Amino acid sequence: TTGKTITCLAAVAWEPGKPVTLETVEVAPPKAHEVRIHILHTGICHTDAYTLSGQDSEGKFPCILGHEGGGIVESVGEGVTDVKPGDHVIPLYTAECRECVYCKSGKSNLCIKVRATQGQGVMPDGTPRFKCKGQDVYHFMGTSTFSQYTVVADVSVVAVNPQAPLDKVCLLGCGITTAWGAVTKLPGVEGSTVGVFGCGCIGLGVLNGARFKKASRIIAIDTNPKKKEWAEKFGATEFVNPTDLPEGKRIQDHLVEITDGGLDFTFDCTGNVNVMRAALEASHRGWGVSTVIGVAAAGKEISTRPFQLVTGRTWRGTAFGGIKGRTELPGLVEDYLAGKMKVDEYVTHRRELRDLAAGFDDMHDGECIRCVVDM
Ligand code: NAD
Ligand code: AHE
Ligand code: ZN
């Protein structure tokens, strides 16, 4: 296809630490193995805020952020076989080429086909497709969903059931899928005890997945008392607020006590390195498995006594919940349509594209789980 450049609106991040602004941008047609998508809805994730703050070592400015989107294919470049104009799609920040050593390993979802250029804010040929005021604008996470039109690599997009509402399943582009995969792909959750630190979108998704996998006891931990009701709705059988503990009592010690030795599985869903440590140390001696999901601020490091690992605890982490997007995401959309997985319930705020910057402020409101932006 030899398409034309499209002029549309986008929220542009000009420099770190400054709010995104609404701009008219030019979006070049897709080249070979690229797909141009009309984005209809996008969530705002903490990782967008993290990069906008200037903390992300991969942050390149000016850029168009956003990686939790849903839209319709507008046109495709040469050689694109898996999606066609009109398909309802979700862009994938974790690509799946099915050819690289990671894809073929059967051990990881971290495809490397386009990862290097993705981290540099450009398409696989080394150039961006966006321009604003005559200047090149970088892509972000291979998705850039804060634009009415975006271009992605064909390995970075998947078609989903068109009956699924895109203003909801856009959230499967990051938060919910990450959380759901992180727990449901772990062997042995059925009948086990689970501890979830942090009850934002990610933590609630883990709670929901733990209930789906029939964990026997699901303890939610959050410093915000308002999260108790949320946690219980998504699957928690108990809620602990660490700030309610007696002075000097550490959350991990409390959890080890009330679970007679620790939890079988714990998850950090906060991005706070002290919480990551507490989650590891709250897991059971001999077999506890603790998963890091939260993204810590640049320069932060985790620590614990090595004895914690010597005595049989496992510290692991996951990106995009270990989900292979092209192969597995359509099935998650079906699980949602079949009522197995909550999605609608995460949407607490809605914004128009012109107010997208205010959606970043919503995230700091203790009541916001996800803000969905109508593009
Ligand atoms: P959020 O801010 O909505 O939720 C965090 C929750 O943690 C809040 O409810 C907060 O009250 C609670 N919290 C804060 N400090 C705490 C403490 N000391 N103890 C217990 N609870 C505490 O964030 P979110 O959208 O759910 O994202 C969580 C993290 O996951 C972020 O760091 C985000 O960047 C990361 N993330 C990672 C991936 C991945 O692929 N690994 C994907 C998406 C998001
Ligand atoms: N680029 C950052 C790291 C950011 C990060 O850890 N990203 C997660 C997804 S967060 C989604 O909200 C991830 O998937 N990482 C794996 C990958 O390949 O990027 C930095 O610090 O450099
Ligand atoms: Zn995200």
Can you tell me the CATH architecture of the largest domain?
A: Alpha-Beta Complex
- Identify the bound ligands: nicotinamide-adenine-dinucleotide, ligand AHE, zinc ion
For this structure, the quaternary state is single chain
Q: Which parts are unreliable, with pLDDT below 50 for 5 consecutive residues or more?
A: none
CATH superfamily of the largest domain: Medium-chain alcohol dehydrogenases, catalytic domain
Structural class determined from secondary elements: alpha/beta
One letter per element, helices H and strands E, the order comes to EEEHEEHHEEEEHHEHEHEHEHEHEHEHE
What can you see in these coordinates?
This protein has 375 residues and is α/β, with parallel strands linked by helices. It folds into two domains: 6-173 and 342-374, Alpha-Beta Complex (Quinone Oxidoreductase, Chain A, domain 1); 177-318, 3-Layer(aba) Sandwich (Rossmann fold), CATH 3.40.50. Helix content is 25%, strand content 23%. It has twelve helices and 17 strands. The strands form three sheets. Strands 3, 4, 5, 8, 9, 16 and 17 form a seven-stranded mixed beta sheet that branches. A six-stranded parallel beta sheet has the order 12-11-10-13-14-15, sandwiched between helices. Helix 5 packs parallel to helix 6 (201-212). The mean pLDDT is 97. Bound molecules: nicotinamide-adenine-dinucleotide (NAD), ligand AHE and zinc ion. Ligand AHE is lined by residues 45, 47, 56-58, 94, 110, 174, 295, 319-320. GO terms for molecular function: alcohol dehydrogenase (NAD+) activity; S-(hydroxymethyl)glutathione dehydrogenase (NAD+) activity; S-(hydroxymethyl)glutathione dehydrogenase (NADP+) activity; S-nitrosoglutathione reductase (NADH) activity; zinc ion binding. Its cofactor is Zn(2+). This is S-(hydroxymethyl)glutathione dehydrogenase. Keywords: Metal-binding, NAD, Oxidoreductase, Zinc. One of its GO terms (biological process) is formaldehyde catabolic process.
